[in-house]
Amino acid sequence: MKPLIIVFSLSSVPKSVVLVYQSFKFVLHYKIKFLFGINILKLLLPIAILLLPIVLLYAYFNRKASDWSLRLFEMTQRLIDKLLSIAPVKRQNATEKALCIVRLDVVGDYILTRNFFAPFKEHYKDYKIVFIGNSIIKDLSVVADSPYVDEFIFLDHSIWNQYNGYIHSRQHAFRFLRYLLKFFIKRYNELLMLKKTHYEIAINPILPWGDILRDDIVMKHLDASFKVSVRHEPFVDRGHHSVYVSDGKISHFYTHLFNIPKVSKFLFEFHQDLFSAFFKTFKGVDLAPVPFGMELPPSSVLKESSQNLLNGLSSRYGVLNLGSSDFFRCYRYFNRIVRYLNEDIQLVICGTTPTEAKEAAKLVKAHKNAISLVGKTSLLEYVYIIKGAEFALGNESSIAHFAAALKVPYIFILSNGSSYATFHPYPKTLCTTHHIIYPTEFANLRESKKIWEQRDVNTIKPSAVIASIKEHAPHLLKENTPDDIDKDYFIEEV
């Protein structure tokens, strides 16, 4: 019996960590399944959970917290990997062939992937189609994708969101400890659950950046005859990445890696290339261009409270979303824009955080026909609200993709330029009503191909947003709205 190879790097680890780790070495090395008739894993997991706090506290009070939070996170993931490699798994008796698609990112990536579920349903009619996604999109995906997906598996977002190193001080050690213990238990259990099903084909369509991502971890532990993804390659038209992580760490997770040229291309078009290559290789068919959009069933399928929420809106309304997943994408001057919007059209303000709720309260005072639904809607309700909107206005966030997929007549999005080409601007072949307003200086960066550099979204003048609305949908503004509202606003404030 071959011993397991331990991949931890212990050269710079405190002695207490080494001792704790070596306490598991006997089990990990020899794969002893039973000790005195007791399953060793049932003993190992509680011991690991009890000893982790000691290791963590030692690390936090003797090293830099910011360094150790990431190191311990990575070490915990490796420990999970090793435990899973020796865990006895009782396979479920599969009565049909299954194919799964893994996509753990949230709204933007999901919206630009989901239309490709349909070709799988068409060309793999004798397969069960399974979607493994993020719990954030659960309710929406079940409603929107049920015609094409036979089974949904949603992984806990609090555990599968990207680790962001939010612990920056020793005072947060106990908070991080709670998180890591939850992470250990939940991720182990969810990966163990996934290992119980055999798939004929498993596909990870995520755009590779060279790092081992959440989706790669899931693919590593899935039981599948064919594991498919994209080979990691540098962008051929960007000069900012001089060093790339080798895909040697990732390639052994997969049986097939497609060589899709990584040029600056909109994500939906990248998926068209990837899935075209897949169907050509596995089915010998040429995949026709997949249409972009989102079809939702009538709102009558929603629960009564959701229907009442939608019925309470005016017949004509627009949606303003104040939030974004990243603070540097959030525009601070919507108050200067809202006061010039046509008040015959109701303004529905959406968001999620308490800060956005405070901002919405101010905007309601500036617009006589505005209401705030910040923190009052589910994702599914939010999508149905956007579906009926006459216009959409907001930051580079979920509203940009929902509005495009739902064919909102007028869409105005403010962007600092990050994720250019991959997520914006929308190609006219996909959405003709999508208008992006960038900082002025971003035009020069785009021309010089330094499109990875981002600028402060708040350098966009409110007048630029008004100018875009006036050009494409002047009826959304009050009559006699001045061209230079910045000057007008300044005079009134004085």
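Second entry:
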Amino acid sequence: MLDREGFRPNVGIILLNARNEVFWGKRLREHSWQFPQGGIKYGETPMQAMYRELHEETGLHPEHVKIIGRTRDWLRYEVPDKFIKREVRGHYRGQKQIWFLLRMVGRDCDICLRATDHPEFDAWRWNEYWVPLDAVIEFKRDVYQLALTELSRFLRRPAQRAEKPRGPRVSRYPRVIGAPAQPLTIVDTSVVCSEIEVEASSLDEIPPRVIVGK
């Protein structure tokens, strides 16, 4: 479903935890990280599409989150031709998105990347709100910056910062589907929860940890 300008209606999700850290998902079998997002189906409202995409990509349900803000209008990005299927070139230009800012009220172990048979992500992590976007595919970076900036006014004080930090401070690692990238002690088949702090300057420099996917 495209509008007259060739943009597909879409929703984007910025999911916060209690520390104002943001959920990032690693695209399946790729090295890029992104926020949950997806198209709005015919007959859906943006909010309905947001809850559907939230569950499909993170396994979370409406009771696990609270809406604390959304963008006032559509934010658009164009997709380069090399990423567009040949049959829709000349018609499809990109995405126009309504962005939602959500506060997670559930637990980390409520997140499940295999909620559907077609997962979008194979790892996830919490990261500081302001973080370099170098691990995001290039044509999405501007709209990410616009969404983060517009929705930052809803952040709880005093976590809101007047200046962006030079690099992220991470206190929780991703849950990884598949074999871990480093030795991991399995206590049982449930989530292994421990915390560690790492100083890093970009998303790509944060080492993985946590559980073997079921």
